[in-house]
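Q: How would the structure tokens look for this protein?
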Amino acid sequence: MSNIFYDKNVLVAGSGVSGTGAKEALLKLGASVTIFCDGDRIDNKHYDFIVLSPSFEKDHYLYEFAKNRNIRIFGEYELGCMLNLAPLIAVTGTNGKTTVVRMISDIFSQSKKVVTCGNIGVSFSSCAVDSDYDVAITEVSSFQLEQTAYMHPKVAIITNITPDHLIRHKSMEEYARIKFSITTYQTSEDYLILPYEAKLYDLSLLKTNAKVAYVSAKQKVDGAYVIDDKIYFYGEEIASIPNAGYLKMPHNIENALFAVATGKIFGISNADIVSGLAYFSPSSHRLELVNVINGVSFFDDSKSTNLDSTLKALACMQGSVALIMGGSEKGLLYDELFENLDNVIKICVIGEISDVLINTAKRHNFFDIQKFENLETAVVDAFLNSPDNVLLSPGSASFGMFSSYIERGEKFKQIVMRIADGKI
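A: Here is the predicted structure in token form.
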């Protein structure tokens, strides 16, 4: 693209990863950049563009400010799309998107120079301004999609759509429409990859011109699938499922199939696909076995920020579970949890949603639930119930008690270490 930013005044909203990345990219392009943080006053300078970090919602006054002054406003991810010169892979969904992005990256890195960015902790625009790579592999959140008017991925993936971020998006229908917008500008030369069994809310809301491929760990589909522990793509046998611990979890088989399908669409060899899957290791705080103390296994699933991820974690547990849940409010309902508690002997709840969880439990006649003031007392109580597993899978965001799911998970690990050392 031509450099439309040279010698222009740009207001960048936000000073985190996205805002800082946008600033770096725009300065390289010769723009004059002003950083705006929520609560700041906007000066009287004329602005040609406003670039938003994902946290800025549609009702923020910057939108009205831009409209009244005829200023083009868009998100940092869209800035990355504008600058990117390589084929784009875009992955969204309620759960699993980080895992899928990292799997694709490990597969493609066997033979190509890739950049992995977006909602995974690296600004797309800061990478795209140099475009020194063969393929851009991006994780895209609903917040980023909401701010992106135009994007054109060669391959778009929607891992699943279950309730999340309803305080921001107001309804499941709106949340799903935003997720489905990932395919709006795809053509018949592009691919949209969908799960065959997983929930996608309401497929009648999905409109696409792309070729649609599916993934399934249970049956033959048009796309990538597993039969008798072998992976296939449109009938072609790719490989036996690698002997990797993370692939013993059913949801990770499906995640791997998204990566396999993407690799085959791009012409990646079967050998490189197998090597990439073998090389992959799961992220910290995603069903991570922390320790085994007196026969009790402690699992850190702090990355669980919605109910669907907690349900998937529970489905992976062997034996009885003392579950630790809770965090900040996201407008979610938790009734489905209490319809799937066959192996749960106790729920220890913390944080802002504690009362919501307790009241929901009572409606479903589940009374082995207790509120705790902090994570340490919850973990200790969970352990004292003598389960086979203590599972931290909060099902909600961390804010209010922790700065991020990472801090929450690290705190859990520290507590488990102190229990192992006999200090609590």
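The first helix runs from residue 17 to 28.

The two ends are 60 Å apart (CA to CA).

Upvote if useful.
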